[in-house]
Amino acid sequence: MEFAFTEEQAMIAQTVQTFFAENATSERTRAAMEAGGIDRELWASFCEELGLSGIGIAEEDGGVGLGMVELAIVAEAAGSQVSAIPLLGLATAGQAIAAGGNIAQKEQWLGPLISGEAIAAAAYAPALKVEGGRLSGTVPFVAHGSLADLFVFVGEDAAWLVAAEDAGLSVVSHTTMDQTRPLATVTLEGANAQALNFAPAREALHAGGWICLAAEALGGAQATLDRTVQYSTERMQFGRPIGSFQAYKHRLADMMVLIEQARSAVYWAACAVDEGAPEAQLALHSAKSFCADTYFECAGHMIQLHGGIGFTWEHDAHLFFKRATSIRSMMGDGDWHREQVARLTIGEAS
Amino acid sequence: MEFAFTEEQAMIAQTVQTFFAENATSERTRAAMEAGGIDRELWASFCEELGLSGIGIAEEDGGVGLGMVELAIVAEAAGSQVSAIPLLGLATAGQAIAAGGNIAQKEQWLGPLISGEAIAAAAYAPALKVEGGRLSGTVPFVAHGSLADLFVFVGEDAAWLVAAEDAGLSVVSHTTMDQTRPLATVTLEGANAQALNFAPAREALHAGGWICLAAEALGGAQATLDRTVQYSTERMQFGRPIGSFQAYKHRLADMMVLIEQARSAVYWAACAVDEGAPEAQLALHSAKSFCADTYFECAGHMIQLHGGIGFTWEHDAHLFFKRATSIRSMMGDGDWHREQVARLTIGEAS
Amino acid sequence: MKLGFSAEDEAFRAEAADWLQGQMAGEFRDIVGIPNLVSKVERRKEWERQLAAHQWSCIGWPVEWGGRDATLAQQVIFAEEYARAGAPNRINHIGVELAGPTILAFGTQEQKARYLPGIAGGTQIWCQGYSEPNAGSDLANVKTKAHLEGNEWVVTGQKVWTSLAHFSDYIFVVARSEEGSKGPKGLSFLLMAMDQPGIEVRPIRQMNGEAEFNETFLDAARCPADAMLGERGQGWGVAMALLGFERGVSTLAQQMQFRNELDAVIEAARANGKANDPVTRQKIARAEIGLNLMRYGALRMLSNADAAGLDGAALTYKIQWATWRRDLGELAMEVLGQAGEIAAGEAYEWSLLPNTFLFSRSDTIYGGTNQIQRNLIAERGLGLPREPRGNS
Amino acid sequence: MKLGFSAEDEAFRAEAADWLQGQMAGEFRDIVGIPNLVSKVERRKEWERQLAAHQWSCIGWPVEWGGRDATLAQQVIFAEEYARAGAPNRINHIGVELAGPTILAFGTQEQKARYLPGIAGGTQIWCQGYSEPNAGSDLANVKTKAHLEGNEWVVTGQKVWTSLAHFSDYIFVVARSEEGSKGPKGLSFLLMAMDQPGIEVRPIRQMNGEAEFNETFLDAARCPADAMLGERGQGWGVAMALLGFERGVSTLAQQMQFRNELDAVIEAARANGKANDPVTRQKIARAEIGLNLMRYGALRMLSNADAAGLDGAALTYKIQWATWRRDLGELAMEVLGQAGEIAAGEAYEWSLLPNTFLFSRSDTIYGGTNQIQRNLIAERGLGLPREPRGNS
Predict the structure, then answer these.
(1) What is the CATH number of the domain that holds D251?
(2) Which terminus, N or C, of chain B has the lesser number of Cβ atoms within 10 Å?
(3) Residues of C in contact with D388 (CB under 8 A)
(4) Would you identify the family this protein belongs to, as annotated (chains C, D) (predicted)?
(5) Chain B CB within 8 Å of residue D338 CB
(6) Per-residue pLDDT tens for C312-370?
(7) CATH number reported for the structural domain that contains residue D69 in this entry
(8) Given this model, what pLDDT does residue D199 score?
(9) pLDDT at B29
(10) pLDDT the model gives residue D307
């Protein structure tokens, strides 16, 4: 029992924080928003130079080993800059293939995903129908769907892998509120689907996705606090820095109280998954719902506490706010996750 | 359309506010708490001297006419002092008899209720069973039940009047969190019940009760604000009156924002009932839920903003807090009233 | 205390409803129900001239200035029927609801004659020059300067958050006319034409992608010496009185817009089944209650308008509506789910509810942040000690 | 980063659980699960002596002073097993968790020898003399005075909110020893015996009807000159360090109590059907999540305890738990409905959940109100400017 980063983890954290702070700048993110929601150069550097895209994937599968704690460290750093990269697709589809793919599937896809040559997207797709290995139906709200080379779809009792180049698959991209991770609608008409081993694929996809989103939210929330604290010492009104007004200070304190809990939530969930703890599901649902709400609350405070400039396009506050909004609704909203917590705690409602 | 007190209403308001401020003192209320939860002398003065106990009851029935607006004015003033009087019983049972009683019932009961010779209590009693004019069953949570001379019980499709002296009726009083309006359990074993005209009795009982509780809550909430403002200018910490600290000021401002809405709610509901407006039910559910929550929130703030002395027995803050707690749970809790608002607005859930 | 309307009032209602519905079903059916303030500007100017032609432009004003001397009840009724007919938000609401009443209250007879017909007639659109980059919450910290040159005021400085400046004809500017003055003293209130070389307007894009607000640069901009409302150096009093008019009957028109937004949320919830979810139902009920309490708060405030001093309901109104609408925006997105995050077309443009969600984040900021509102409530409403200024 | 326990730790768990369960099923079964701090005092003193006799009284302390030098993991385990066995809250928690660690940190060898055995041995109960009527949130405004007379300190003043003073053997008192000093300077930290004529204790009845807190009047109360912890006039530093120990392993024991309370809410909801209500389920889920985040926050805080400086998780802990418990109390009453407002007997005495509801209103006040906590977080955690003092 030692609920603190190991030296190696602290080193990874420092590396990725520096990487995203230096490279995922506001300028580049805004350029990516105009270019389909991805900073391809950033993603290439992340995969090739940083060498952390293989986190949570075994070394024999081409990954770098490690686990969800390290994935969370990466996602936290990426989230703190609202980086426009397809990390979520890797954390979901990549984990699903690593956990539920056969040898051929792993060999075909994990290498390109880790190297950054291929981009993955994943979605819950209960409406898909399968007939003779052919999938049909519509899958809405696929994050980064219009960029993906590979899709993982999870239904009620099966999971499939479909290549984007499949003739039976078509994608319509949408202008999305959060332009750093646009949503697309994927339509399948007899697309060729490769089945994944359902239970482990789904479990790994959920764990990877929820931890990725929760950790992004943590990083984003901390950034909204840090930036607002910074602003509050510079902006003068009534002859005083606005950060000297008690109501302002207390709002920032409230943000910190939430964020510290969010930090506990992310790393509790990540540890619980890595250690196969029985409370892993409780931790995952807690982390996703709590961190998303925290981020949203903090990003709203950031706008409010910046006053007029806080709601302009030019200021970055809305990037955080929109990412927070999308994290909230993605992969199960807060009410749904809390209902799962209630089921685990109280049992089913009768 | 003139949503302000008439001169007569303003005069009544001033009269009752003065009456309760002068007579329903903390000392007398605390004495009443040790004596079954009633200040009989206060109630006698209210009925006999003030002459406002007949509000909302027609003059031909021995009342003073007027309506729910004036009842609200009285309840607001009584609530601002957490007065230990059986006003709620009058507002519910009295209204029910006036609206749903036959001539004999009115003649027998309204006079003594208005003069204060008799005390009434009322309760929702879905578990009661009637057989040949005889009622049996248990009615829990009857406010001021152990003092009542007369009960009105409302079931799912009938309403009855039962005299406390009936041999088939027994009462067990309970030590109750809010000692200014204790709850009792009434048990009926073949008690002699006189039927009231169900629909008008129930409607009048609900309107009278919900308005009484909402207005008490408004008065109580305003008192918590006024007393805390007063305290905040007297109590010094860090060499400043605590009311000069912005976080403290903003909390008081939040209370005022709630209270002003509560004031609109109470008098909207009262007017709507008096005018037979179609939105009367919407207004009643809104007023009961909003005012109860406002009172509870404000009473909680009162304790918090008084610091250590705020949670002592000696200080009055807990009297407000406990009354607020009881108003919240009485005659339908907030979730139930809001669900009624949802039904009126959205329709039934399917 | 009475909520119902008299038979006379109901006759007025019938007349107003009849005319409004006729217009919206006829000549102006192309502008029914536009919620924002920036589209179809020319057609809406035509509509506002049509209102004026039939004496419906500013019914609460005196008859001599184009109004009807309408009672409060009539104004309430007109606001309701205006919204019910689907007539578009008033593009010149700053002129009709703020500038006009302020000129009526503070203007000389000559000033009234000069400005009011253009406002009442729907021919002159107004905007508001209060905030500056360093005078936001600290509104009295105005740096824009004015000095007299012959019979003209010459004004230099920068205003910000000037809503609708890009198609306004006039702006009222709070400027520092007394050199060396500080804070609320030494300010004057000037009425300036926008169409002059000394004024440049640059739109500010908001987080919803639209640009309703602007920066307005004044570089030796000019107005006649007698285009000053109130006394020289006493402009702060005029500016504050104007803010009081924001809590006037116009709040009722705004509430009709809120009603549309809440109805849209309910409709969306019905459409996708969320209307059956008990948790969502609680939240919709809270919104419904809050909206009604705003309405009755406004009626209370208006009914008491003659009473001296600031009434509690009036002081609390801004934070109440701004917070309500922000919460409604959040509820809307919860109800819509991910569908609410997708725009209809390729452009970054938002339909009613997602736009409410995004735009409402500015509601709790402009016109005095929620924090400033709480200061005002605590200090003016509850008499608590004022917040100390720093030294600078 | 690791949450699981080693095999060695699990062996320790088995040993502790075995002993604790044996005690609670045997000799001490009459005091299983007492939540408050004021009943069955004598029996509980016996229990604390029994803990000491088997070296379970303060396992984190050094072996030489009666502890076991237990690791963090072992302390976590012991707290869990202590609660699981239903052992009662520690009546001497102020001695074991606050006074003891502070004496270990600041005491001379002689002071340690004088005071620690009584604490570790369960024979001397301690209470805390910090707050005064005019030194609440403004804790440094202490007026209680101390001066040396020969080889004794003579102390006069009034302390308030002295929890458990009415059956304590010792009190630590923050007193102004340097005449004319102000604020945090010039205070000293004195360890005083309660059983003397100069000390009078008057219970304060709280809103739940019980009296856990007291006023403590010191009228020329005395203690030896060398009963001062730390340097003369430097008592503020000692007092603040002591508050730091409040965020120690004892938080875990407290959380076990919270767990019991939440479990009782869930049980009540199951019993009356509210467990099927989606709105209630959301609230219970929030409470469950909050409790877990408290647990992992505490583990994070304890795991980082060696790191220099105040960690964020530690600074935020007080407001977090106090707010959580207040919310739980409200939820409990919502779940119980009116039944929660009725006492079991004639006395004004409350069972677990209604008592949580009432008592938790003091949690957000004592030990630094939520407002003071936010000041601390903003100033120490975020480096924002300090709140100015007034002139008085």
Answers:
(1) 1.20.140.10
(2) C
(3) 388
(4) Belongs to the acyl-CoA dehydrogenase family.
(5) yes
(6) 778 999 999 999 999 999 999 999 999 999 999 999 999 999 999 999 999 999 989 99
(7) 1.10.540.10
(8) 98
(9) 98
(10) 53
CA distance A86 to C94: 46
Any domain includes C146: yes
CATH architecture of B200-349: Up-down Bundle (1.20)
**Paired strand residues for B154:** B124, B159
Which of D361, D384, D389, D391 to probe by mutation at the B interface, max B CB count within 10 Å? D361
Gyration radius of chain A's alpha carbons: 20
User: Is residue D206 domain-shared with residue D85, that is, in the same domain?
Assistant: no
B313 reaches D (C-beta below 8 A): yes
Q: Are residues C252 and C332 in the same domain?
A: yes
Low-confidence ranges of chain B (pLDDT < 50): none
Regarding whether C251 and C206 lie in a shared domain, the answer is no
Supply the mean pLDDT for chain D: 93
Domain termination residue (choose one: D192, D209, D232): D232
Query: Would you place residue D360 in the very low, low, confident or very high pLDDT band (cuts 50, 70, 90)?
Result: very high
D224 and D136, same structural domain?
yes
The answer to whether B140 faces chain D, any CB pair under 8 Å, is: yes
Q: State residue D308's pLDDT score.
A: 46
- The per-residue pLDDT of chain A, averaged, comes to 97
Number of domains in chain D: 3
Domain assignment of residue D287, yes or no? yes
Q: Cβ C313–B350 below 8 Å, yes or no?
A: no
Between chains, do B313 and D209 touch, taking CB under 8 Å as contact? yes
Find chain A residues with C-beta within 8 A of B245's C-beta: 246
Chains in contact with D, counting 3 or more C-beta pairs less than 8 Å apart as contact: A, B, C
Q: Where are the domains of chain B?
A: 200-349
pLDDT of residue D56: 97
The crossing angle, in degrees rounded to 10, of helices D317-336 and A246-274 is: 80
pLDDT at A176: 98
Under 8 Å CB pairs connecting chains A and D tally to 161
Beta bridge partners of D190: D173, D228
Least confident residue range of A136-150, B58-72, C130-144, C308-322: C308-322
- In angstroms, the separation between the Cα of residue B117 and the nearest Cα of chain C is 32
Whether residues C181 and C293 share a domain: the answer is no
- Residue B154, pLDDT score: 97
Residue C391 within any structural domain of the chain:
no
C277 shares contact with chain D (CB less than 8 Å): yes
Tokens of A158: 């099966």
Give pLDDT tens digits for D271-303: 999 999 999 999 999 999 999 999 999 999 888
The shortest C-alpha distance from C277 to chain D (Å) reads 8
CB-based contact (8 Å) between A317 and chain C? yes
Host domain of residue D63: 7-91
CA A112, A118, A121, A125 torsion: positive or negative?
Answer: negative
Are residues C213 and C325 located together in one domain of the fold? no
Q: Return phi, psi of residue B34, to 5°.
A: -85, -5
Q: How far apart are the first and last CA of chain A?
A: 38
CATH number at residue C163: 2.40.110.10
B287 CB-contact burial (10 Å; exposed 0-12 / middle 13-18 / buried 19+): buried
Looking at the structure, do residues C280 and C363 belong to the same domain, yes or no? yes
Instruction: Give the tens place of pLDDT for each residue, C149-175.
Output: 999 999 999 999 999 898 899 999 999
The answer as to whether D113 is a domain residue is: no
Distance CA D369, CA D375 (A): 10
DSSP D36: S
Average pLDDT, integer, range C39-66: 94
The torsion angles phi and psi of A16, rounded to 5 degrees, stand at -70, -35
User: How far is Cα A217 from Cα A209, in angstroms, rounded to an integer?
Assistant: 12
| Nearest residue in C to A336, CA atom | C279
For testing the chain D interface, which of B82, B238, B311 should be mutated: the one with the most D CBs within 10 Å?
B311
Are D212 and D253 contained in the same domain? Answer: no
Q: Name all chains with 3 or more CB-CB pairs below 8 Å to chain C.
A: A, B, D
CB-based contact (8 Å) between A139 and chain C?
A: no
